[in-house]
Design goal:
The complex is a heterodimer of chains A (165) and B (399). Chain A is mainly alpha-helical and 165 residues long. Chain A contains six helices and no strands. Chain A folds into three domains: 81 residues, Up-down Bundle (Four Helix Bundle (Hemerythrin (Met), subunit A)); 31 residues; 41 residues. In chain A, helix 1 runs antiparallel to helix 2 and helix 2 runs antiparallel to helix 3. Chain B is globular and about 65 Å long. The longest helix of chain B has 34 residues. In chain B, the strands form two sheets. A two-stranded antiparallel sheet of chain B has the order 1-2. In chain B, strands 3-4 form a two-stranded antiparallel sheet. Classes of the chains: A mainly alpha (165), B mainly alpha (399).
Chain lengths: 165, 399
């Protein structure tokens, strides 16, 4: 059951990611990205990280992507027209991509140490309490530094967005 | 019974009850609004218009399903499905009552108890923006687009204070599972005051309850926050271009979201299915008393009819209510149904408030709406969260 679900959602994630690249309309692209986020959340859930899964949906699919879609709708962005591609890209693009992906997977497989197969649901540190405790003890510094970074980014956006500098 | 069969049976029962409730909630709303405005409301189909929901469903099913030529077909069809699916999905984690035993099977009155139940609900509510936003965009009409934009901005904005208000209640309950949240609210202070989160020491959550309720109005796009469908400026907002069942899907989603919001307020702040006062003081007699009283009122109005046919219909209503009252006096039935009664009573009361507000308050202006949430609601919710956190940290043993 776990394996079937894994394959179903892995295929959906990859298909949505491919669709994101192929689509010409921004809204279709944004929706494909939401599909990727959603299937990733299911994969987290299969691994036992239920808090991460929920946060994945709330933050990425629910908040960030809604803003993306909102901005696309507000700007009324239309479909992009494909511009003339070079002859090399037209004939060599797909074969080169396949070779590159094959090489990449081969390198990753040969470089990673041999480990036992993933056990679905075998990880049990994904409850909200565990994640919270780690965030406020072991990973306190990175957590706080990230929040400062985000604050700086917001300030930058406000300064850049002002009408007169 | 194995897990899958049990789940299917429970899902079928839940779906049947839910669909009936959704249909009749609309009848209740039309009747209540009508009486607030000194009208009769639906009264033609069946006695007191009781068959009106059925007539509406038949009408909506048989209407021509028009797809305008200028829409983005895929998203136009996807949007109502998305809205209604997400709205109904959230009922999977709502606990309606404690564990009961029927025909030798012990099971909680809940489809599934997730240990991240509340986060699941938040995730669903944050994704359900897409139904409305995509409907507005895919319709390719200026009214729909404006409605969709307004709605998504409004839902994102009101989600913040709502989540913060929920977080302060969670500080008292210390769990994300909705069933456990209800379980922690069991018991009474001084034997009378229920230990619901709204009254809970060390820091009663009255403020966050009010904030949550206001946000629930905005999240469900209802008056006074129904700007996405403000009919005198946007025709019908995001569902202007929809007809037939797709139009009905948006309505179903709105009513389902309303019920989820009220059920969530009941679970988090009003103690779920725990009665208002202890059983020693006669809480177990309340359902029977309420139904008896309702029957008596109906009988009185049947004896002094405002319209000729009330003389025939209202006594029947009275007898039905009295039969329910007798049913709640039987100890075995009461044990199983009393928690459901309390849950339904609290949720129903909140739903009535939703309808009451719709009949009473005028619509906000859009800038007022946004200023209200960002400059007032969010700071209030945040201050409440900080105060709760401080008090809970200082007096961890008081509860």
């Amino acid at each position: 059951m776990d394996a079937i679900l894994f394959f179903v959602f892995a295929v959906i994630a990859v298909a949505c990611a491919a669709n994101l690249v192929v689509q010409t309309h921004p809204i279709a692209g944004a929706l494909s990205l939401i599909g990727v986020m959603g299937s990733l959340a299911v994969l987290y859930l299969l691994l036992g990280g239920e808090f991460i899964a929920a946060v994945q949906v709330i933050v990425y699919a629910g908040a960030i992507m809604v803003l993306f879609v909102f901005v696309i709708m507000l700007l009324n962005a239309g479909a992009e027209r494909p511009v003339g591609r070079s002859v090399v890209a037209r004939y060599l693009g797909v074969p080169v991509l396949v070779i590159f992906l094959g090489l990449l997977s081969y390198v990753i497989q040969s470089m990673l140490p041999a480990s036992e197969a993933v056990r679905f649901g075998g990880f049990d540190g994904g409850a909200p309490a565990e994640v919270g405790r780690l965030l406020f003890t072991r990973y306190l510094l990175p957590f706080e530094v990230t929040s400062v970074l985000i604050l700086v980014a917001i300030l930058g956006a406000v300064v850049l967005g002002r009408k007169e500098l | 019974m194995d897990f899958i069969t049990l789940s299917v049976v429970k899902a079928v029962i839940l779906a049947a009850v839910l669909m009936t409730t959704l249909a009749y909630l609309q009848w209740v709303e039309r009747k209540v609004i009508a009486h607030i405005q000194l009208r009769m409301g639906p009264s033609r189909v069946g006695p007191h218009g009781l068959l009106q929901p059925l007539a509406d469903v038949i009408k909506l099913l048989t209407k021509e399903d028009l797809i305008p030529p200028h829409v983005n077909r895929f998203l136009y069809i996807l949007a109502p499905f998305l809205a209604v699916t997400l709205a109904l999905m959230s009922f999977a984690v709502v606990p309606f009552g404690p564990e009961i035993e029927i025909f030798g099977v012990r099971t909680p009155v809940q489809l599934t108890d997730l240990n991240i139940g509340l986060l699941f609900l938040l995730a669903i509510s944050s994704v359900s923006v897409y139904g409305v936003a995509l409907a507005g965009w895919a319709s390719n009409s200026k009214y729909s687009l404006l409605g969709g934009l307004r709605s998504s901005a409004q839902m994102i904005s009101y989600e913040l204070p709502m989540a913060v208000a929920l977080a302060s209640a969670l500080l008292l309950s210390n769990t994300l599972s909705l069933r456990e949240i209800v379980d922690t609210q069991q018991g009474y202070y001084l034997g009378v005051i229920p230990k619901w989160n709204i009254f809970r020491l060390p820091f009663p959550q009255i403020l966050s309850f009010v904030v949550f309720l206001i946000c629930a109005f905005a999240e469900t796009n209802r008056l006074p926050f129904d700007l996405p469908e403000a009919e005198n400026e946007l025709v019908a907002g995001f569902h202007t271009e929809y007809s037939s069942m797709k139009f009905a899907a948006f309505f179903m989603a709105e009513y389902a979201n309303m019920i989820t919001g009220c059920a969530l307020a009941t679970i988090l702040f009003l103690g779920g299915w725990h009665p208002l006062w202890p059983a020693e003081w006669g809480a177990h007699l309340v359902p029977a008393a309420v139904f008896f009283l309702a029957g008596a009122i109906a009988f009185y109005h049947g004896a002094h009819p405002a319209r000729p046919r009330d003389r025939r219909t209202l006594p029947i209503v009275a007898v039905v209510f009295w039969m329910l009252a007798v049913l709640f006096l039987l100890p075995e039935v009461r044990a199983a149904l009393a928690p459901l009664f309390w849950f339904a009573a609290k949720t129903g009361l909140l739903l009535f408030c939703f309808i009451w507000v719709r009949g009473t308050l005028p619509r906000f202006r859009y800038d007022q709406l946004m200023r209200f949430t960002w400059k007032f609601l969010f700071p209030v919710a945040m201050a409440n969260l900080m105060a709760t956190g401080l008090v809970v940290a200082l007096f961890p043993d008081v509860s």
